[in-house]
């Protein structure tokens, strides 16, 4: 009897959850479906079975040199992530393993730089970039995204490093390990998972950043965010091509995102929710 | 065992981060503050003069200013309302036993990974377009007149799009918090005959309180800066109907070439963000003490 009731409950919950999930996922799903339609098919009204043509994908690449933008996105998001890690790993390391009285204040101050609204420094950044020739350059944008995400990277690494037990360090020291040996043989293997998930989250954030990437680029360094935003002034009907470009722009990050759900919570709440 | 040597090394390791963030925080902000007191137009860059508080006065008396502040607050408030209420409901549902939970979860969090310009364009063209959008198709199927969302309800449409992007974030965080709720407590409450509502009000909600605070504060930081969604869909219009503070500053700076005016707006945005930041830092700081 109890068993039957719980099965019925499961059925109800399953149906409700699937309906909500499908509604929320629908815009993405429909974009993917439309990307496999022809342009005339795409505007013929609602239809969830595409003809399966890939002409839109070919057209996007032929018309706009799509892969240049894609490559810019990869270079800028991966580049800024590696740069941020290079600076952040030592900092997080030192705060986690040699904390001082000021460590907490420094962490809070770093977080506070993240609160500065981007638009408040739009004018000076734009002028600095213009005068130094960094406008529309990959280097400029990479540095920009590094600075924006640095506080999150440091915080995330800090929360991971802090979980590495100090006793292990002491044991290694007792066994006569040098500082270098400590870092290379004891701490690094334990820190790799934390660094990897920090990297994943940061690539996602940098890939989707849509203020600086749009405002500081025109053509050469423009990543996918700027490329897609340029579709906002339409020239004729382009539903299928837009869908193909959008699908390509979100696919890699969607897949990475699915793998990093847990880290996402931790990284975006600065360790406040685990 | 922390020798003088390791302490020096620790400081050295920290220095680059602190230095970079210090420069990043001080230099542009000081420039914005300086510009906000200048008459400085990019069309006439040779003629820069001291303006005193004129830019602030100009920004303050511009009718678009109050509308943009109001729109900013409406976007933040509207999206928070939808995502927090919706997020709690969906998180409670996902916490129940069901089939295909993994796939459901993946589908629900997906919108969060869609870059803002794509989200905005997809909603604008495929969902809300009065001619070819899915909502128009549904309206026609029901024999109703299709709605021109961005002309008739520009701000509401933007709120819907942004809420769609942030609902997964709220859901995911609240679900994580929900799953850390002590199962024994829940069982005890059930044994004592507590119904769903009283269990929710007296047990679940207090447990979620902290996570809800975190969701609200973090989202507020991002929502104060909504930009790409407006740029791609309504471009702030019609008139100033969907212009928020960041968009007004962008218009003043890069479309109006008014460096001074935009900088004054930027300083106002900083003040607004600081009020929010003050509360967020307290909430996060508390966690650090534990």
UniProtKB/TrEMBL annotation, chain A:
<keyword id="KW-1133">Transmembrane helix</keyword>
<dbReference type="InterPro" id="IPR035906">
    <property type="entry name" value="MetI-like_sf"/>
</dbReference>
<dbReference type="Pfam" id="PF00528">
    <property type="entry name" value="BPD_transp_1"/>
</dbReference>
<feature type="transmembrane region" description="Helical">
    <location>
        <begin position="69"/>
        <end position="94"/>
    </location>
</feature>
<protein>
    <submittedName>
        <fullName>Sorbitol ABC transporter membrane protein /mannitol ABC transporter membrane protein</fullName>
    </submittedName>
</protein>
<feature type="transmembrane region" description="Helical">
    <location>
        <begin position="12"/>
        <end position="33"/>
    </location>
</feature>
<dbReference type="GO" id="GO:0055085">
    <property type="term" value="P:transmembrane transport"/>
</dbReference>
<keyword id="KW-0813">Transport</keyword>
<dbReference type="InterPro" id="IPR000515">
    <property type="entry name" value="MetI-like"/>
</dbReference>
<keyword id="KW-1003">Cell membrane</keyword>
<feature type="domain" description="ABC transmembrane type-1">
    <location>
        <begin position="70"/>
        <end position="260"/>
    </location>
</feature>
<feature type="transmembrane region" description="Helical">
    <location>
        <begin position="182"/>
        <end position="207"/>
    </location>
</feature>
<keyword id="KW-0812">Transmembrane</keyword>
<feature type="transmembrane region" description="Helical">
    <location>
        <begin position="106"/>
        <end position="129"/>
    </location>
</feature>
<dbReference type="InterPro" id="IPR050901">
    <property type="entry name" value="BP-dep_ABC_trans_perm"/>
</dbReference>
<comment type="similarity">
    <text>Belongs to the binding-protein-dependent transport system permease family.</text>
</comment>
<feature type="transmembrane region" description="Helical">
    <location>
        <begin position="238"/>
        <end position="259"/>
    </location>
</feature>
<dbReference type="GO" id="GO:0005886">
    <property type="term" value="C:plasma membrane"/>
</dbReference>
<keyword id="KW-0472">Membrane</keyword>
<feature type="transmembrane region" description="Helical">
    <location>
        <begin position="141"/>
        <end position="161"/>
    </location>
</feature>
Automatic annotation (TrEMBL), chain B:
<feature type="transmembrane region" description="Helical">
    <location>
        <begin position="208"/>
        <end position="228"/>
    </location>
</feature>
<keyword id="KW-1133">Transmembrane helix</keyword>
<comment type="similarity">
    <text>Belongs to the binding-protein-dependent transport system permease family.</text>
</comment>
<keyword id="KW-0472">Membrane</keyword>
<dbReference type="InterPro" id="IPR035906">
    <property type="entry name" value="MetI-like_sf"/>
</dbReference>
<dbReference type="InterPro" id="IPR051393">
    <property type="entry name" value="ABC_transporter_permease"/>
</dbReference>
<keyword id="KW-0812">Transmembrane</keyword>
<feature type="transmembrane region" description="Helical">
    <location>
        <begin position="248"/>
        <end position="281"/>
    </location>
</feature>
<dbReference type="Pfam" id="PF00528">
    <property type="entry name" value="BPD_transp_1"/>
</dbReference>
<dbReference type="GO" id="GO:0055085">
    <property type="term" value="P:transmembrane transport"/>
</dbReference>
<dbReference type="InterPro" id="IPR000515">
    <property type="entry name" value="MetI-like"/>
</dbReference>
<feature type="transmembrane region" description="Helical">
    <location>
        <begin position="106"/>
        <end position="123"/>
    </location>
</feature>
<feature type="domain" description="ABC transmembrane type-1">
    <location>
        <begin position="69"/>
        <end position="280"/>
    </location>
</feature>
<dbReference type="GO" id="GO:0005886">
    <property type="term" value="C:plasma membrane"/>
</dbReference>
<keyword id="KW-0813">Transport</keyword>
<keyword id="KW-1003">Cell membrane</keyword>
<protein>
    <submittedName>
        <fullName>Sorbitol ABC transporter membrane protein /mannitol ABC transporter membrane protein</fullName>
    </submittedName>
</protein>
<feature type="transmembrane region" description="Helical">
    <location>
        <begin position="155"/>
        <end position="178"/>
    </location>
</feature>
<feature type="transmembrane region" description="Helical">
    <location>
        <begin position="12"/>
        <end position="37"/>
    </location>
</feature>
<feature type="transmembrane region" description="Helical">
    <location>
        <begin position="69"/>
        <end position="94"/>
    </location>
</feature>
